[in-house]
Structures are given as structure tokens and as C-alpha cells.
Design goal:
There is one protein chain. By secondary structure, this protein is α+β, with helices and mostly antiparallel strands. It has eleven helices and seven strands. α2 packs antiparallel against α3 and α8 packs antiparallel against α9.
Length: 316
């Protein structure tokens, strides 16, 4: 397994460096063929890794599907030198199927969801059957950000805020994200003029990047607003939008105190080095000291608009 991991890493490095040299026009003989063969090597190494994990029961066999398609596409690319149409079509069809499967799993798990479960947990579980867990978590976070953005824009901002201890009111992120249209849209229009005579793909890329940046901004505003810290029974569920969630039993908390504002950003990073940080700039910070290490940490730093209320609530 280690040999396969090393082979995959080396192949990806060779492919990346070769394609970069090709982009910059470095005259090296047979550089394009080297790049294509490196892609083939990385694809077959990934296929072997996925197959080994599936045989050992460490991963479902469904993960092998993408690796098989990647191998077929890399071989086509290596021998023809053309963009692999097979890969594009096959991945598109499989992606449609995977998205349908994920939606079905999420809808089926709604009734069994507990108070501190998040919708992306079901998305991660469903995606993990087809892709590495890291990619599954990334896809789940992206999905929630996009969905939350549309919900927020189409009436979500009028809804009552969830009960809990919020951290977005005093956060510097909120006004910055809400103001993004004021400079993202003009920038997009200026670049559109500059790229007027460029190939249409560059203009489409310009529009797509800027529109997605706006979706991301509104999605983060919505998730920061709708995911406060909450006390659920004998547990404190501490959150930072879609990025992090820590569940702490109340009887595991030894003490809590307000961190002075005079520390500043660098002072806070130095103080909290190595400890979980659920922080947003601008909001007061509470340090939660644990009786015993939780996930290797003795302290947790969280932001809260009402630090006094949060500290009173963190009592068993």
C-alpha cells in the first residue's frame, strides 16, 4: 500500500510539473507524452489503492467506479493526446446518479435526525460511498453553502433567528460578506470589458467565478446566522458555521472565562495555539477549560455576541 501511495504521489508531481512546463512553453522533448504517462500511472495507482481498500473491507466497492473511469480516460488521453470525451460523459452520468442517491439518502434520514445533527452529516455519509472522506466533507460543505445562500436570498433573512448563543452580530465577517456585491459586480463588469475580444471561455470563467463568490458570501452569512452555539440537554454544541462543530458534555467543563480584547489577533493566535478555535473577528472570545483532554485539547476558544450568557449556560 505504501508503495502505491508513493507511486501516486510521484506520478501526480511529475504530471503537475510537466503540464506547468508545457503551459510556460519550456522546450523539453516528449514532455507532453511524459505528462500523459504520469497521469496514467496516477490513475492506475489510485485504482489499486481503492481496490485494496475495498477487498480489505475498509471502503465500499462503489469507490472503485471513479478510479476505473479515470484509468480508461487516462489511457485514451495518453494514446490520442485529445481531451478524453469518455471521461467527461461518464463522470457526468455518474455524478447525476450520485447526486440523486445523496438527495434520496438525505431525505430518508430527516426523520431520524437528532437535535445536534446537521444535514451535511447525511451528505458526507452518502458521498463517502463513492469518494474519499475529505472530498465528501468538502462536497457536503459546498452543498450546504449553496443551498443556504438561495434560502437566505429568497426569504430566509426574514425568518426568526434560531435560539442559542450567536456570534455573527458583532463579527466583522457579516458586514464584509453582505457588502461583497458592491465590489464583486463592478470588478466582474470591468473584467468583462477587458476580456471582450478574448475567447468566450475566459468571459464565462470570469462570470462564473464572481457569481459563485457572491453565492458563497450569502451562504456563509446564512450559516453563521442559523448555526449558533446551543445547550442541548447535558451537552454544549459549539459551532462555527459549516466549518466546525464540537460537542462538549457540560460536566467536562472545569471553568470558563472571557479572553481580554487587548490581546489582538496575533496575541489570540499565540494564546490559543494548538487548541480548537471557533472564532470570528470582532466578537468577544470565551475560553472553555476542560477537566480532561477532549480530542487532544484541554481548552476550546469560541466567539459569542453574549459571552456572559454563554458562560452562565456552560454549567452542569
Amino acid at each position: 500500500m505504501k508503495l502505491l501511495l508513493v507511486l501516486r504521489l510521484c506520478s501526480l508531481l511529475v504530471a503537475g510539473i510537466s503540464f506547468a512546463l508545457l503551459v510556460f512553453g519550456v522546450p523539453i522533448p516528449r514532455l507532453a507524452r511524459i505528462a500523459r504517462l504520469a497521469v496514467v500511472g496516477a490513475s492506475f495507482a489510485q485504482l489499486s489503492i481503492d481496490a485494496s481498500n475495498a477487498r480489505a473491507g475498509r471502503a465500499p466497492w462503489t469507490k472503485v467506479a471513479f478510479a476505473l473511469i479515470a484509468c480508461a480516460a487516462s489511457l485514451e488521453f495518453a494514446f490520442t493526446g485529445q481531451p478524453p470525451l469518455l471521461f467527461v460523459v461518464a463522470v457526468g452520468l455518474i455524478e447525476v446518479g450520485v447526486i440523486g442517491y445523496v438527495i434520496a439518502r438525505v431525505l430518508r434520514s430527516r426523520d431520524a435526525r437528532t437535535a445536534d445533527d446537521m444535514p451535511e452529516d447525511a451528505i458526507v455519509t452518502a458521498y463517502a460511498r463513492f469518494a474519499p472522506e475529505g472530498f465528501a466533507r468538502f462536497a457536503a460543505a459546498e452543498s450546504m453553502i449553496v443551498l443556504s445562500a438561495f434560502r437566505y436570498v429568497f426569504g430566509g433573512f426574514r425568518k426568526v433567528r434560531p435560539v442559542g448563543f450567536h456570534y455573527d452580530v458583532q463579527s466583522m465577517y457579516t458586514p464584509f460578506l453582505l457588502a461583497m456585491p458592491l465590489f464583486v459586480i463592478p470588478e466582474m463588469l470591468v473584467l468583462e470589458v477587458i476580456l471582450w475580444h478574448a475567447p468566450w471561455g475566459w468571459r464565462l470563467l470570469n462570470e462564473g467565478v464572481h457569481v459563485y463568490a457572491l453565492i458563497w458570501a450569502f451562504g456563509l452569512v446564512a450559516l453563521f446566522r442559523n448555526r449558533p452555539h446551543q445547550i442541548l440537554g447535558e451537552r454544549a454544541v459549539l459551532r462555527l458555521g459549516p466549518f466546525r462543530r464540537i460537542v462538549v458534555p457540560l460536566d467536562a467543563i472545569a471553568s470558563r472565562h472571557l479572553v481580554p480584547d487587548t490581546l489582538g489577533g496575533r496575541g489570540m493566535k499565540k494564546l490559543a495555539a494548538g487548541d480548537p478555535q471557533l472564532l470570528v473577528p470582532g466578537a468577544p472570545t470565551v475560553c472553555i477549560v476542560l477537566r480532561a483532554p477532549l480530542a487532544g485539547a484541554n481548552r476550546i476558544f469560541v466567539s459569542a455576541d453574549d459571552p456572559s450568557g454563554l458562560m452562565r449556560a456552560l454549567v452542569a
